[in-house]
């Protein structure tokens, strides 16, 4: 049973200004709790109690308020992106882990579904994603990290997937068993060696790559990615509009 969660929270969250003027994005409050508190509760409810936080912007405030976390510091957060940020916790991956972005809301049920999905790697996928996007004028469906699937496997994860063809949206939550974690680390090392300082897929430079770009590289190399579907029970808080929507709707149904 996986007990380790890695929370990726190094970035500033400029699209959530002015909320993030002087606080980490994960400190934004919804329903009287910070985003990070909702994540801790969701993981704990699914039996995941060993939490590693990858911080950058305002990391000292997270260290102060959450001394129970293990911390990894992405000091170069202004010059890299989610993929490199996650790999700052490479030493935490050996026994398997579940990871998430720090700017999302999700329930314990979403975590359980992901952990219970057979396979060494499983992506959590919101199949009701388009219902959320009806309210999101600042974040169009074209910008979503969408997935296509076939026979229980993810066949593509990419923003450019046309919405009608998408099975759902990747929530930012993913499970890796020890074997899955080894595959992730192996493919990251190979890509870094080949592309460091150079363009990598859609990224202008490898260091600025999103995590899903490595996922797609792995899928095309034959690595199996399962999908753990959730009909909602998830929201992204990327913009000020998302923040207001979360305050209106999260936990109301």
Question: Uncertain runs with pLDDT below 50, 5 residues or more?
Answer: none
Helix percent reads: 25-40%
Sheet with the most strands? 9 strands, mixed
Radius of gyration: 17 Å
Strand content: 15-25%
Strand and helix order: EEEHEHEHEEHEHEEEHHEEH
Number of strands: 13
Q: What shape does the CA trace take?
A: globular
Structural class: alpha/beta
Gap between N and C termini:
30 Å
Average residue-wise pLDDT: 94
Number of helices: 8
Write the layout of secondary structure elements.
Elements: E1 4-9, E2 29-30, E3 33-34, H1 35-45, E4 50-55, H2 59-65, E5 70-73, H3 82-86, E6 97-101, E7 104-106, H4 108-116, E8 121-126, H5 129-133, E9 146-150, E10 153-158, E11 168-176, H6 178-195, H7 211-220, E12 226-230, E13 234-236, H8 240-249
Parallel strand pairs: 1-4, 1-6, 4-5, 8-12
Antiparallel strand pairs: 2-3, 6-11, 7-13, 8-11, 9-10, 9-11
Helix pairs in contact: 1-4, 6-7
Verbal overview:
- The structure is a single chain.
- 30% of the residues lie in helices and 25% in strands.
- The protein has helices at 35-45, 59-65, 82-86, 108-116, 129-133, 178-195, 211-220, 240-249, and strands at residues 4-9, 29-30, 33-34, 50-55, 70-73, 97-101, 104-106, 121-126, 146-150, 153-158, 168-176, 226-230, 234-236.
- The strands form 3 sheets. Strands 1, 4, 5, 6, 8, 9, 10, 11 and 12 form a 9-stranded mixed sheet that branches. Strands 2-3 form a two-stranded antiparallel ribbon.
- The longest helix is centred in the C-terminal third of the chain and has 18 residues, at 178-195.
- The mean pLDDT is 94.
């Amino acid at each position: 049973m996986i007990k380790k969660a890695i929370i990726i929270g190094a970035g500033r969250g400029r699209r959530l200004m002015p909320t993030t003027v002087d606080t980490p994005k994960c400190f934004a409050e919804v329903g009287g709790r910070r985003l990070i508190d909702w994540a801790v509760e969701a993981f704990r409810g699914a039996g995941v109690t060993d939490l590693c936080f990858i911080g950058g912007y305002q990391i000292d405030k997270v260290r102060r308020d959450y001394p129970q976390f293990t911390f990894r510091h992405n000091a170069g957060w202004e010059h890299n992106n989610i993929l490199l940020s996650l790999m700052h916790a490479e030493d935490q991956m050996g026994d398997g882990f579940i990871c998430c972005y720090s700017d999302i809301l999700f329930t314990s049920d979403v975590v359980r579904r992901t952990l219970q999905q057979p396979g060494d790697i499983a992506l959590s996928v919101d199949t009701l994603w388009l219902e959320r996007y009806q309210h999101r004028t600042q974040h169009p469906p074209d910008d979503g990290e969408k997935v296509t699937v076939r026979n229980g496997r993810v066949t593509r994860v990419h923003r450019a997937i046309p919405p009608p063809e998408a099975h759902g949206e990747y929530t930012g939550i993913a499970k890796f068993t020890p074997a899955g974690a080894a595959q992730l680390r192996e493919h990251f090392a190979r890509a870094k060696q080949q592309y460091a300082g150079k363009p990598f897929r859609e990224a202008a430079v490898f260091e600025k790559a999103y995590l899903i770009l490595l996922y797609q590289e792995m899928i095309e190399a034959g690595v199996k990615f399962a999908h753990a579907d959730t009909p909602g029970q998830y929201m992204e808080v990327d913009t000020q509009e998302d923040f207001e929507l979360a305050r209106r709707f999260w936990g109301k149904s």
